[in-house]
Design goal:
The protein has 442 residues and is α+β, with helices and mostly antiparallel strands. It is 43% helix and 11% strand. The protein folds into 2 domains: 5-152 and 312-374, D-Maltodextrin-Binding Protein, domain 2 (3-Layer(aba) Sandwich), CATH 3.40.190; 155-308 and 408-441, Periplasmic binding protein-like II (D-Maltodextrin-Binding Protein, domain 2, 3-Layer(aba) Sandwich), CATH 3.40.190.
């Protein structure tokens, strides 16, 4: 898929609130209404206007494409999904199909309502060929519990115009990354080599984990709740992060996702680590051409390490155990992954939403997007990162208590042991190890 991507590119109403009485209860009947159609309710948590519209258009197309199934959608919020959705399910008011990310899937799995989709995924995989990285976090010992829909991966973004002016090449190792950050920093003129989130946030968790994984430390905690966070890779990544912050704006401790992107577009910084949302606004916000925004894989500690981005596979769970609804859901998933619909879904966020199938990566309905057309090599880079991506808590079995690590942002807290409390990288890694061990023991 990666090798063919550039040539392929060159060739080419929201329902709010909870819906009652529609959920995944075993007593639900698959067929309802005088029209004899199978009625499915789908909840997703993609709240932005573009995503709501894209999801609705895909669902409308599916409903219009056949006469046996009707899908209705309700938009929820990730802000309260971990409390609101389980409460709705327990009250018998949950949906038939529910959006998943890996740790949310584990929450719903523990409720005993999510259905094993191994047979459905086997059939879809034969037709579309799922990336293994998209399936791994939903693969439990007793089945596969979500159909992957789209993925998100990180790369190192850089301003090529600033690198060219300094006579620099894009970095591939930690050492080169630090050298570039230093060379591109001119604090007297408010220019910095890089910007990194250093706040107590998921953004910090994600960027730091990509560096930890690229230093050989991807296995933070395994399926038996054994924590292995305190290792050479973690220490090396913490040291690098601390050193890079010397060549970053002084208020990085307030940054999450948006600030580094804005600064890169402004030309205030030369590098940032983040996902593919950088593509859609670069030209309009920077005032320069698309050729000045480039990316490379996350730099590695040394040659023995593999560039590894944090990777989020977003998917859909089936909650209803009704056989007719199962078959209807399978038909919807099949349609969603087809070229007729998939490009439209992915292009709700061009570059951020990445295909989770080999076929999807070659669809002209995706690649013909006007934003993606300007960045063929960057799209190729994002796809490569997605194929080798990992997610802590899901690299060696599934840690069912991963929420106790992600919820309080323990990875970001580990960094703040250095930036706020003055610990060394070694001391911080040990603190993180102890904090995680305590968290998963409860």
């Amino acid at each position: 898929m990666k090798k063919r991507i550039i040539s392929a590119m060159l060739a080419v109403t929201m329902i709010a609130g909870l819906i009652t009485g529609c959920g995944g209860n075993s007593s639900d009947k698959g067929r309802a209404g005088e029209d004899g159609k199978v009625k499915l309710t789908l909840w997703h948590m993609e709240e932005t206007d573009a995503r709501v519209q894209a999801f609705q258009e895909v669902i409308d197309k599916f409903n219009e494409s056949q006469s046996e199934v009707e899908v209705s959608v309700a938009v929820q919020s990730w802000d309260d999904a971990y409390t609101k959705v389980p409460s709705a399910i327990q009250a018998g008011n949950g949906p038939d199909i529910l959006q998943a990310i890996p740790d949310f899937c584990s929450v719903i799995y523990d409720m005993g309502v999510v259905q094993d989709l191994s047979d459905v995924i086997s059939d879809l995989d034969e037709k579309y060929s799922f990336l293994q990285s998209s399936l791994t976090p939903y693969t439990y010992e007793d089945g596969i519990y979500a159909v992957p829909a789209f993925g998100m991966a990180q790369v190192l973004w850089y301003r090529k115009d600033m690198f060219d002016a300094a006579g620099l090449s894009a970095p591939t190792t930690f050492e080169e990354l630090l050298e570039c950050a230093k060379a591109l920093t001119d604090k007297e003129n408010s220019k910095y080599g890089i910007a990194l989130p250093a706040s107590l946030s998921m953004a910090t968790d994600q960027v730091l984990y990509s560096l930890i994984a690229s230093a050989g430390g991807k296995d933070v905690v395994n399926g038996e709740n054994k924590v292995t966070f305190n290792n050479e890779g973690t220490v090396a990544a913490l040291k690098l992060y601390q050193e890079l912050l010397q060549y970053a704006p002084s208020d990085c401790d307030t940054y999450a996702w948006g600030e580094p992107q804005a600064l890169l577009n402004q030309g205030t910084i030369a590098m940032a680590i983040e996902k593919g949302q950088y593509l859609s606004t670069f030209e309009s916000e920077s005032g320069v051409g698309a050729e000045n925004l480039c990316c490379v894989p996350i730099p590695v500690l040394n040659e023995s390490c593999t560039s590894t981005s944090i990777y989020y596979s977003n998917g859909f769970m089936l909650l209803s155990d009704d056989e007719a609804k199962r078959e209807a859901a399978k038909a919807f998933f099949d349609f969603m992954l087809s070229e007729e619909a998939y490009g439209e879904l992915l292009n709700a966020e061009p570059g951020l939403f990445l295909p989770v199938t080999e076929t999807g990566g070659e669809y002209s309905s995706w690649l013909s997007n006007e934003v993606l057309q300007k960045y063929p090599e960057e799209v190729e880079g994002l796809l490569a990162s997605a194929e080798t991506g990992e997610l802590f808590g899901f690299t060696d079995g599934i840690c069912r208590k991963i929420g106790s690590i992600t919820g309080p942002n323990l990875i970001a807290q580990t960094l703040q042991q250095i930036t706020v409390n003055g610990k060394t990288a070694e001391e911080a890694a040990q603190w993180g190890q102890s904090a995680m061990e305590e968290a998963v023991s409860k």
